[in-house]
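sanity check this record:
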Amino acid sequence: MSCIEKLSETSCLTATGPLAGYRVIELCSTIAGPACARLMGDFGAEVIKVEPREGDSVRSIGGQDKGVSLYGSAILRNKEAVSINIKTEAGRDLLLKLINEADIVVENFRPGTLERLNLGYDVLSKDNPKLVLVRISGYGQTGPYAAKPGYGAICEAFAGVRHMTGDPDRPPSRTALAATDYLTSVYAAFGAMMALLNAQKTGVGQVVDAALYEAAFSMMESVVPDYDRTGVVPMRQGSRLPGTAPNNLYRGSDGNYVLIAANNDAVFKRMARAMDRADLLEDPRYTTIRGRNTNHEALDAEVAEWATTVTAREAAERMEAAGVPTSLVYTIADIFEDPHFRERDMLVPVPHETLGEVTVAGVVPKLSATPGSIRHLGHEVGEDTFAVLQRVLGISDNALHDLARDGAIMQHGLDAFDERKAVRA
């Protein structure tokens, strides 16, 4: 049963957005799974994150301030943090009861882990046939590599993306961000929404199988038919985008970089005039998109030479005035200074009990009628254990203390030894 049918529950009343009233159980660690559930939480879902006592390893990634995980504050936002030891019989029973009251479960264990815990989809959906189970893994739930461990970076290499990243005369590179994890989280959330819609129509849920390597491979869409028909294995292109020209980074006279993208004929004409190089429009090598791509090295050299005559900012301003897509290469410091990010609510300061305030990235995408929101930052491990189990399952105080004493659950700030003495007294 979703909490849309329990309007008296506080968590449902405080959430807004298109997913308000739906309950999500998150059984995830690191990035792709938590990011998927965070998307649902941003748009109003009641997300209950279930962690072991030691917590999700994502809490140890990135910076810390006064003992607070800054990444955890962001990726665990809009979630209630519950600590349950699902390797105990009592803990497993609690998890099953929570799942019986949920609409969606998100997990990113290695395939087979849930089944070994006797928590496969057949068990989870037995008393909750509309349940949607989102399974995120490196290589998917089936196939010869299903059991292999795989992080986003590993699966980028397997999917061919890493081969395409970097400069042709250097080893394959990577972006210093978890790009494939976040892309997979969006595919997984999209799959969950489609499955949820179908469950509403049919009364029957299903499993969403989201593989990191497949999300990465989806970026190879243009490469697949090319290789099939021509046998060409494309190589790394450095900072340029293959297939169009000019679309590259150019260094200004001040040493800073500007990215200019003149992908089609109309934009190329505007770029040439902004450079005071109308002669480029008469060059037969550059009169078509294919011609410019074929002769991209010569064309890039022309644009690069022009860029050295102005600062990167001046180049960007001239291109922008002419209607040519362009941007300086921003650092995070530049982003914090740019008014557009603030105006679009992409840098959102949120109150924090320990730190006073933490700025996090905003909600994406923007919905005109039912927008998402950031209700609170990430909670500590087990901060909401007692509150959630009381609210959702109606477990009494004494029973919760007994469960904590026996190690089936953990409540943040509760010393198990002292609590045992208090209960006995």
